[in-house]
Design goal:
It contains two helices and 28 strands. By secondary structure, it is mostly beta strands. The chain is globular.
C-alpha cells in the first residue's frame, strides 16, 4: 500500500498552466506568468510577465512567447544569445526570436522553427548545427520538409515533420542518429539531416544522450545511450536503432530526463522507466529491495490516485499535472523547487493554489 502527502484541492478548473523542463519550471494563471524556478543564485523571487502565449524550457534557458515578442531568461548560449550578459535573471526580449513556432536549446546551441523552416545556431559540435563551421552567430537553415517540432540535445539536433518523420544530425557516438553502418567506427557524425526509420511520430523527447518518440498509434520508441536502462532494461550500453519500450496501452504523452523517462496513457495512468535511484521512478526507498531489478527498471506504474493530464521531467524530478495540482517525485538535486522535498513515502501532491504563493 502506498501513502501520500496530499493537501485539500481548491483550484478552479482550467485556470492554471504548469510547465517543467531541464532548466526548471513555471506557473501561469491564464496568460500571466506568476512564478518560475526560484534559486537564490539564479533568479529574483517573483516575475510577472503578461500575455504569455507559449513557453519553452531548454537545458539552460526558458523562452516565453508573448504579444510583444519572445523573451528569454537563463544562460547566454554561445556568448551571443544575450548581448553583454552572461546570464539573464529576468526575462529579456530577443527580437530575432520573434515569430518562432517552436524552440529548443541545449547548453551550447539552439533550434527554432519560423515561417515553416528550421534554423540552427550556436556551437556546431559534430555538425549539430549543420554545414556552418565551428560556431555560427546567424541562424543557419536546415533542409527539413514541413517541420513542426525541434529537440536540441548535447551534440545533436532532432526535428519532427508534420508527416511524422524524425530527422537527426550531429554526433552518433551514442546512437542518436538511429543507425550504425556495419564495418565503420562508432564515432560517426553527420552535418546533414538523417531520416530515422520510424512509423509516423507525434512527439519527440530526450535527455542526455537518448531519444524517446511517441507514435501516432500510441506506442513508445527509444534509442541512444542505455547505461542506466533509459532505453530498455538490458545490458546493451548503446541502442542504435529505435525499439518499442511500451505498447501495453495507448500512450498520449512522454517526457525524458538524463537517466529516466515517463509516459502517460490515454486512461490517465503514468509509467516510469530507467534509473530508479533517488526516487526517480516513484518507488519508495523502503520498497526498492522488494523489486526484481537492480536500479534499471522497465516501465513500471506510478501509483497516482488522480487522473493525470500531462507529464514533465526536470533533472531527477518528475511531475504529473492533474486538474488541480502537481504530483511530484524524485530528488531536487539543485534545490530549484521551493515546494519539493525528498519523501520517504515516494510521492507528494502540491495544489496550484500553493504554488501561486511560493
Amino acid at each position: 500500500m502506498s501513502f501520500f502527502i496530499k493537501v485539500q484541492k481548491r483550484v478552479a478548473k482550467g485556470l492554471y498552466t504548469w510547465q517543467a523542463g531541464e532548466f526548471g519550471a513555471c506557473l501561469l494563471k491564464g496568460q500571466t506568468l506568476l512564478w518560475k524556478t526560484k534559486t537564490s543564485s539564479f533568479f529574483e523571487d517573483t516575475t510577472i510577465l503578461h500575455d504569455v502565449q507559449r513557453v519553452w524550457i531548454g537545458e539552460r534557458n526558458m523562452f516565453f512567447s508573448t504579444k510583444k515578442g519572445v523573451f528569454v531568461l537563463g544562460l547566454n548560449i554561445a556568448d551571443w544569445l544575450l548581448k553583454n550578459k552572461g546570464f539573464a535573471h529576468e526575462p529579456v526580449h530577443v527580437p530575432w526570436l520573434d515569430g518562432a513556432e517552436d524552440i529548443s536549446s541545449s547548453s551550447h546551441h539552439l533550434l527554432l522553427i519560423r515561417d515553416g523552416a528550421v534554423y540552427a545556431w550556436g556551437e556546431n559540435i559534430r555538425g549539430c548545427c549543420g554545414d556552418s563551421g565551428r560556431k555560427t552567430r546567424t541562424c543557419y537553415p536546415l533542409e527539413i520538409p514541413d517541420p513542426v517540432s525541434v529537440l536540441a540535445l548535447g551534440g545533436n539536433s532532432l526535428i519532427l515533420s508534420r508527416k511524422g518523420e524524425v530527422y537527426a544530425l550531429g554526433c552518433n557516438a551514442d546512437g542518436v542518429l538511429g543507425y550504425r553502418e556495419s564495418g565503420t567506427l562508432v564515432f560517426q557524425w553527420s552535418k546533414k539531416p538523417v531520416r530515422i526509420e520510424l512509423p509516423p511520430i507525434r512527439k519527440i523527447a530526450g535527455g542526455g544522450k537518448r531519444v524517446i518518440a511517441l507514435s501516432w498509434d500510441g506506442k513508445v520508441y527509444a534509442w541512444g545511450r542505455n547505461e542506466d536502462g533509459e532505453v530498455l532494461c538490458s545490458r546493451s550500453p548503446v541502442v542504435y536503432r529505435p525499439l518499442i519500450v511500451f505498447d501495453k496501452e495507448r500512450v498520449v504523452d512522454v517526457a525524458a530526463g538524463e537517466r529516466h523517462a515517463i509516459l502517460l496513457t490515454e486512461n490517465g495512468k503514468v509509467y516510469a522507466w530507467g534509473d530508479a535511484l533517488n526516487g526517480k521512478l516513484g518507488i519508495p526507498p523502503s520498497k526498492m529491495n522488494q523489486q526484481p531489478y537492480d536500479h534499471a527498471f522497465p516501465p513500471v506504474p506510478v501509483d497516482i490516485p488522480d487522473r493525470v493530464q500531462k507529464v514533465f521531467v526536470s533533472g531527477e524530478m518528475s511531475f504529473a499535472m492533474t486538474e488541480c495540482g502537481i504530483w511530484c517525485w524524485g530528488r531536487d538535486l539543485f534545490k530549484r523547487f521551493a515546494f519539493c522535498k525528498q519523501s520517504e513515502q515516494g510521492l507528494w501532491f502540491v495544489p496550484f493554489s500553493h504554488l501561486e504563493c511560493c
